[in-house]
């Protein structure tokens, strides 16, 4: 399936957006988590696991901050804007962290790094100065020693990664930029600037598949839908869809989606996997929706408003957040059955540098996931290149 024959981004209409950001009651900064003392370190990734917010940094460290306090401030509707808070360092590595993923599988946290490795962590604790403090315990480094030994002894396991340099196929040879887990939790997907996608079997961490040269340029983003379809976004301006059919061992390319005029930096799935959002250096968020029953996606419009490149996205249900190099975060609400447009609920502007990472936590919904009659609430966590993380309370009105 190729979408290249459809209109270009220039002719793709902007979606009907209702701007409600002039109402200050819809959003509020309830906490600011200060960065490291190192001026050069920035927040590179965020992940939420229950009541824990993990904060990854370009200096290789991972910090922990409890969301309980933020939820209490949200419920009490306190107006202590920007109150400063501190976090606890729970892991230190020797390589910049590029992405974080909380799998929800027995407290497993995964981090990908500039050195081409993936590290698997378990939540633990340590006793220091008479106090018990949280700590991440390193479970494995991928590729594991078993994988490296298994492949290094077989001549056919080596692939040429550049002229006069060869490496086994289980290795990423550049920064691992994105991670995602299959709906059943059995497979881990990783994407890299080396243009490859790798598939790892959990919980054994064995590499079972590698798609070399999946794109023509570095892969920056990865998302997996509830039906198991894998989406990758690249600096080659393309988004590709991959799937593995029943009884098949390998993933196959099933779609190439072209809309952006520059590098795709972020992907996020919303509306139970029916809507894919892509953000790029062209300052736009393209909305892709399911087309027919074949699982394909077609572009239905764009969300505009950012003045510079889109660097990160986060989505849950009918809400999507976008973070940009223009130092702002925008929160969008997808319309209902009779309103296919989007509402801009908030524009958060107090970051001092480009917003590099986002995490979205929905709350206040009914059992079926819909809004209550009063609406719902959300916590938006945003990390920036100045090293700070801000926690925002956002009210999500029902349409």
TrEMBL record:
Keyword Repeat on entry: yes
WD repeat spans: 169-210, 212-242, 257-289, 303-332
Highest taxon in the source lineage: Eukaryota
Keyword flag Repeat: yes
SMART domains documented for this protein: WD40
Assigned keywords, A-Z: Repeat, WD repeat
InterPro entries with a match to the protein in the record: JINGUBANG-like, WD40/YVTN_repeat-like_dom_sf, WD40_PAC1, WD40_repeat_dom_sf, WD40_rpt
Record-linked CDD domains: WD40
Protein name per its UniProtKB record: Anaphase-promoting complex subunit 4 WD40 domain-containing protein
